[in-house]
Design a protein that fits this description.
373 residues; alpha+beta; Beta-Lactamase; Heat Shock Protein 90; 2 domains; 5-stranded mixed beta sheet; elongated
Length: 373
């Protein structure tokens, strides 16, 4: 792919015999370029429709003549230009008398071969989609909490028996197996703590805000999985060791990734199944805080990747709804619980899926303190 010198926004693709302008004009997303003086230097056909004006009236005009100067769009453009890296922002409202109110996601990236130029992509989102991301099926989750409360007593009784049996076994096993009995006791204690805080779908106010080392959480989940439900699955890790601590509740985060890894283990093939755990720092991901104008940065991205058959297109829009499952014996509560816990932590969860590659990405806020042990 080559950028033509005569027109920096015309991308030549000689193999396909089609110009870059035709490609960009075929996109449903708005794409425009702004120079270091804030002037619009390029806009595609979707951008003309979005701004309700022709390219002839938009080109070489200041962006501020089309969008209010206090819009987060300008801050995103400045951030991309200053740091010379791509940044994204979710759940932005762009509103003017001409175009009305629009709920969008924004992506801004510097143009390396044109100093000072920033390319912005605007992805429209419906009101329902906006609410879905931030409130994550809260109403449906509340309907499950009453049922969970009724089950709490019955769940704790067998757990007490399991813990007692693990303690009796501990005295007569080898040092290597003693680590496994200790793991059983620790997990029983963690489940009892979850039950004590019932319901499982809790409000944000009840979430602890401790500094948590997410790699210790993932290591713990990995240990449980490889000694239990995912014995025959190959695991790989790709961690960023410099990642700062997450702000949240360790036990709840264990619950999140235990559910995601268990789902992945059930999806991968019996032979050649693989699960990859990744952590990364992604600068520039921000979302709105419900009920305020504040925006929270979510730079910590934890991914659970599997090589299963993928999730069907029909199921994907309802993936985090309670009682929705593709498993014959599944309850459909696991991912609903995951989504609620992530939302209560101020984060978001996304899923990308295709045959032989499904990725669940959890975006979380970081804590400024010291990781907990």
């Amino acid at each position: 792919m080559r950028i033509l010198a005569a027109n920096p926004w015309a991308v030549e693709v000689p193999q396909a015999g089609i110009s870059g302008d035709h490609v960009l004009n075929a996109l449903t997303a708005t794409v425009f370029a702004v120079d270091d003086e804030g002037m619009i230097r390029y806009i595609n056909a979707a951008g003309e429709q979005f701004l309700r004006a022709s390219a002839g009236n938009l080109l070489n005009q200041p962006l501020s003549s089309q969008v209010p100067e206090d819009s987060p769009l300008f801050g995103l453009i400045d951030q991309a230009r200053t740091h010379q890296q791509a940044v994204s922002e979710y759940d932005i409202t762009i509103e003017t008398p001409r175009i009305g109110r629009n709920f969008v996601n924004l992506h801004a990236a510097p143009a390396p071969e044109s100093p000072g130029m920033v390319v912005v992509t605007v992805f429209p989102r419906s009101i329902a989609d906006k609410i879905d991301r931030q409130l994550t099926h809260r109403g449906a989750a509340r309907s499950v909490s009453a049922m969970a409360s009724l089950m709490a007593h019955e769940v704790k009784n067998p757990l007490s028996g399991i813990r007692g049996a693990a303690q009796l076994l501990e005295d007569g096993v080898s040092e290597e197996n003693r680590a496994l009995t200790g793991l059983i006791r620790d997990e029983v204690d963690r489940i009892c703590a979850l039950v004590d805080r019932m319901g499982l779908f809790m409000d944000e106010a009840s979430v602890r805000r401790d500094p948590v080392n997410i790699h210790q959480v993932l290591d713990h989940v990995h240990q449980i999985a490889r000694n239990g439900f995912a014995k025959g699955v190959r695991f790989a890790t790709n961690f960023d060791p410099s990642l700062p601590p997450v702000r949240g509740d360790r036990d709840q985060l264990v619950q999140v990734f235990l559910n995601l890894v268990k789902n992945a283990a059930e999806a991968v093939p019996a032979r050649g199944g693989e699960i990859i755990l990744e952590s990364a720092y992604r600068h520039g991901i921000r979302i709105a805080v419900p009920g305020s104008r504040d925006r929270v940065e979510l730079p910590l991205v934890i991914s659970v990747i599997d090589n299963g058959p993928g999730i069907s297109d029909d199921l994907r829009p309802y993936l985090f709804d309670p009682f929705v499952t593709s498993k014959p014996d599944g309850s459909g509560l696991g991912l609903a619980l995951v989504a609620q816990i992530v939302q209560a932590h101020g984060g978001i969860i996304e899923c990308e899926s295709e045959p032989k590659r499904t990725v669940f990405k959890v975006f979380l806020p970081m804590h400024s303190g010291t990781p907990s042990a």
